[in-house]
Recover the amino acids of this structure.
């Protein structure tokens, strides 16, 4: 399912609306991921994962910045995310199945904060965008 | 077998008491058909599913969504025996409907998004975690009788 022109426009518009708050939502998505899918915590034994953790917040901002980069490069996600994919594959060695868990929790976070903006068509576009991001990251594995 | 703590059961039932099951069912099923369009394969007889608006306003989608979520509701009353509760439905989905059980997980996650949208702040990470356990438990129960 390629990203259509409408998908791209929708994702860009939503990102403009999120503005400087992407970090807050990515942090909440991480918290939700750790809470709902405890196995994901095994990648962060060196982090304080308690609510309000500064380390999780800083990591959330990193995730946010990567997603914002992705939104700015919708025409070449594999290229834009190549280094990040290699990092996750070869140095961090994260099971790529976990990317979908974080994507789901990001959708849940945005649904919780922007219920009026997550109409079914937007939900579909966002889900597709996040699927493309996770595919781009996973393409550096193996 | 999935085990729910007393706190989880309380969080689950207190939120569920405020859900309009009919509306949420139609919404969840509609979103499933839009976000994961291949799931439309099971609903050829439902008529127009060609656009998001067509799906969300389709009467058969709403009716079936209501049916599905009423069933899910029954499961919530039997959290300690999801496999038993959904045994017959599991056989039906395997033998008669031929539904890939992967779809149960997809619908479960869409339902979680619908609940987040509806409850906002109340859908805390802990509430979400409890519901992720429920939807995973229901999906497993529905897949349990597959052969």
């Amino acid at each position: 399912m390629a990203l259509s022109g409408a998908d791209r426009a929708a994702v860009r518009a939503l990102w403009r609306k999120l503005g400087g708050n992407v970090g807050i939502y990515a942090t909440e998505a991480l918290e939700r991921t750790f809470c709902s899918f405890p196995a994901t915590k095994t990648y962060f034994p060196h982090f304080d994962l308690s609510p309000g953790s500064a380390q999780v917040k800083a990591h959330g901002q990193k995730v946010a910045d990567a997603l914002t980069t992705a939104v700015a490069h919708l025409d070449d996600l594999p290229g834009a995310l190549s280094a990040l994919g290699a990092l996750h594959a070869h140095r961090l060695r994260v099971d790529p199945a976990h990317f979908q868990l974080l994507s789901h929790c990001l959708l849940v976070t945005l649904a919780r904060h922007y219920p009026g903006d997550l109409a079914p068509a937007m939900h579909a576009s966002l889900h597709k965008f996040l699927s493309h991001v996770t595919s781009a990251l996973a393409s550096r594995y193996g | 077998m999935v085990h729910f703590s007393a706190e989880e059961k309380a969080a689950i039932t207190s939120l569920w008491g405020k859900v309009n099951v009919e509306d949420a069912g139609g919404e969840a099923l509609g979103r499933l058909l839009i976000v994961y369009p291949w799931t439309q394969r099971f609903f050829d007889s439902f008529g127009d599913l060609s656009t998001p608006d067509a799906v969300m306003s389709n009467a058969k989608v709403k009716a079936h969504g209501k049916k599905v979520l009423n069933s899910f509701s029954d499961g919530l009353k039997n959290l300690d025996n999801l496999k038993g509760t959904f045994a017959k439905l599991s056989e039906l989905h395997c033998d008669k409907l031929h539904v890939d059980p992967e779809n149960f997980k997809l619908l479960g996650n869409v339902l979680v998004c619908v609940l987040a949208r509806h409850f906002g702040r109340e859908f805390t990470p802990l509430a979400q975690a409890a519901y992720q356990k429920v939807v995973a438990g229901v999906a497993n129960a529905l897949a349990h009788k597959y052969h």
